[in-house]
TrEMBL record:
The lineage of its organism: Bacteria, Bacillati, Bacillota, Bacilli, Bacillales. Pfam families: RNase_T (PF00929). Keywords: Exonuclease, Hydrolase, Nuclease. GO terms for molecular function: exonuclease activity. CDD domains: DEDDh. PANTHER family: DNA POLYMERASE III SUBUNIT EPSILON. Coiled coil: none annotated. This is 3'-5' exonuclease. Residues 59-229 form the Exonuclease domain. The keyword Glycoprotein does not apply. The keyword Amino-acid biosynthesis does not apply.
Length: 245
C-alpha cells in the first residue's frame, strides 16, 4: 500500500521518526527508545566475570515462548513470552513475567488446540516490539535458561533483528543438554515431559509459556543441585563439562 501523497504532516513525521510513541505503539512501530534499550542490553553480555560467579549465586531467567509454528525463518511468529527468575537453586516465585503478543498473522488451528491461544486473544495483545522490550527488561543482564533452546533462540533472534537489527548475545543454557550430561542413557527423547517425569516434577499447564517456564525452572534447580554435588562450582565449569558431554 502506498503512502498518501502528502509533503508534510503525519507521514512526513513518521519518516523523520517524529511520531509520538503512543501512536507508534498502536501502529506496532518500534520507538527509538525501545530500540535503543534493546540494543544497549545486547552489548557486552558475554563478559567473562559471569563465568566465575558461583552457581549458588548465579542469576538466571528461565523462559519459554509459544509460537505460531516451528520455523522462524519461514514466517512463524511469537505468540507469548513466559519467564521466571532464579538465583542459584532458589526460584523467585514472585518474579515472573508473561505476555501475549499480536503476531499479525493467522494462528493455525493445531497451534490454538495446543496452546489455547486464539486470534481473538492476540488481537487485544500488544505488538511484538512492546512484548519483546518488556521481556528483555525483565531479563536484564542475567543468563537465560530454556529447554531445547535452539527453537527459542531462533525466534528471539528473528524478533530482535526484525525490531532492532541486533542478535541475542546473552548466554543461554539448555536443560536438554544438561540432562544429556547429568543423566546419560536415562532417557529416550530428552523431551521436557520425560525429564519432568523423571525428576518427579508435576506436569501442569503444558504449552503455556509461563507454566512451561516454571516447570523448566524446577528442572534447572534440580540440575544446579546435582552439579553442586559434583563440585561444579561456576558457569565456566558447566561449559567445560558440556563441551565434553
Amino acid at each position: 500500500m502506498k503512502e498518501p501523497a502528502q509533503g508534510g504532516g503525519f507521514w512526513s513525521a513518521l519518516r523523520r521518526g517524529g511520531v509520538p510513541s503512543a501512536i507508534a505503539s498502536v501502529m506496532g512501530a518500534p520507538t527509538a527508545q525501545q530500540m535503543a534499550f534493546i540494543r544497549s542490553l545486547t552489548r557486552e553480555q558475554r563478559r567473562s566475570e559471569v563465568l566465575r560467579t558461583p552457581l549458588e549465586r548465579l542469576e538466571t531467567v528461565v523462559f519459554d515462548l509459544e509460537t505460531t509454528g516451528f520455523s522462524a525463518q519461514h514466517g512463524d511468529e511469537i505468540l507469548s513470552f513466559g519467564a521466571i527468575r532464579v538465583v542459584g537453586d532458589m526460584i523467585m516465585e514472585k518474579e515472573q513475567f508473561y505476555t501475549l503478543v499480536n503476531p499479525r498473522t493467522e494462528i493455525p488451528e493445531h497451534i490454538t488446540e495446543l496452546t489455547g491461544i486464539t486470534r481473538e486473544m492476540t488481537d487485544e495483545a500488544p505488538p511484538l516490539m512492546n512484548g519483546l522490550h518488556d521481556f528483555m527488561s525483565f531479563v536484564g543482564g542475567r543468563v537465560l535458561v530454556a529447554h531445547a533452546s535452539a527453537h527459542d533462540k531462533a525466534f528471539l533472534n528473528a524478533a530482535l533483528w526484525k525490531t532492532s537489527k541486533v542478535q541475542l548475545t546473552h548466554r543461554v543454557l539448555d536443560t536438554m543438554m544438561l540432562a544429556k550430561w547429568l543423566e546419560p542413557q536415562q532417557h529416550q527423547t530428552y523431551s521436557l515431559d520425560e525429564l519432568l517425569a523423571f525428576q518427579s516434577i508435576p506436569i501442569e499447564g503444558r504449552h503455556h509459556a509461563l507454566e512451561d517456564a516454571k516447570m523448566t525452572a524446577k528442572l534447572w534447580v534440580a540440575y544446579v543441585q546435582e552439579m553442586l554435588k559434583r563440585d561444579v562450582t561456576n558457569l565456566a565449569d558447566v561449559y567445560a563439562h558440556l563441551s565434553h558431554a
